[in-house]
Amino acid sequence: MSWFRREKKGISTSTQEKKEAPDGLWNKCPSCKKALHTTDLEENKWVCMYCNYHLRIGSKEYFNVLFDNNQFTEIFPNLTSGDPLHFIDSKPYTTRLAETTQKTGLKDAIRAAHGKINGEDIMIACMDFNFIGGSMGSVVGEKIARSIDYSLKHKVPFLMISKSGGARMMEAAFSLMQMAKTSAKLALLSEAKIPYISLLTDPTTGGVTASYAMLGDINIAEPGALIGFAGPRVIKETIKKDLPKGFQTSEFVLEHGFLDFIVDRREMKNKIADFLKMMKN
After folding, report:
1. Which uninterrupted H or E stretch holds 164?
2. What is the CA radius of gyration of the chain?
3. Residue 39: exposure state from Cβ atoms within 10 A (0-12, 13-18, ≥19)
4. Dihedral through CA 110, CA 112, CA 117, CA 119, nearest 10?
5. Do residues 110 and 140 lie in contact, with contact meaning Cβ atoms separated by under 8 Å?
6. Cis check: omega of the bond before 92, within 30 degrees of 0
């Protein structure tokens, strides 16, 4: 004898009475394809609980992961790009900037802030891939330069978190100039013997890799991050050969001597704090 008996058969819920899950409640791991609850994912630093895949995150999440109690002071928040070339592709550059700002809530592809990591003072500049592919334009270069100036003035270490598709084509030579500009500023930081930590995340490519991303006193990366100058598809089409397995992943780059070590995001804060204390003492 069954414990429960359905009194009404063929029960159905009308369309009007159906309830949908709120947007943003669930995520899907790009690697193992399993469903991830947003709250659990945030508690795990946006790393998949099943396969340890590091999901792409932006400056808001990195600041939350690294700064003590998520307390920081953002500097130069209102810098925005101009349109010196009056560039138009499928739409005017000014229109693209306005639409991207409205969609993401960001002024450009980078945010800069100072605060503490495990009690240690630090200046952090973090790129956002959601803003035109994290492309490096004049505002990105200027914010990095001003962040370095802050580090020089206050004698605090500088952490650069790179996440970019490369130089911003809409600004052409103005974008490429940022490679030299940021590299020159980092040379001043080196002369002052102030630590510079470069964190490469997925993806770090193009002119960013060819400049400030690879100039750290230590270069570290997250597991599985794509790191390189040209993309794998472009290289394969150029050399007409199949590429090695795992080509341009952070593990591949580490093996070939371009990184110092790879750090799990959940251990990132403590690792960086330990390095800062070591350099301080």
Report:
1. strand 158-164
2. 22
3. exposed
4. 180
5. yes
6. no
- 3-class DSSP string for 77-105: CCCCCCCCCCCECCCEHHHHHHHHHHHHC
pLDDT in tens, the chain (281 residues): 556 666 666 666 666 665 565 567 899 999 999 999 999 999 999 999 999 999 999 999 999 999 999 999 999 999 999 999 999 999 999 999 999 999 999 999 999 999 999 999 999 999 999 999 999 999 999 999 999 999 999 999 999 999 999 999 999 999 999 999 999 999 999 999 999 999 999 999 999 999 999 999 999 999 999 999 988 888 989 999 988 888 999 999 999 999 999 999 999 999 999 999 998 86
Distance, in Å, from the CA atom of 191 to the CA atom of 152, rounded to the nearest integer, reads: 10
Q: What is the residue whose two structure tokens read 């899907």?
A: 28
DSSP state of 82: -
Task: Write out the H or E segment, with its range, that includes residue 72.
Answer: strand 72-75
Here the tokens at position 112 are 């800069």
The beta strand positions in 18-62, using DSSP E, are 26-28, 35-37
Tell me how far the alpha carbon of residue 19 is from its chain's centroid. 35
Stated pTM of the model: 0.90
Taking residue 223's Cβ as centre, other Cβ atoms within 10 Å add up to 16
Q: Hunting for tokens 């050399």 — which residue is that?
A: 239
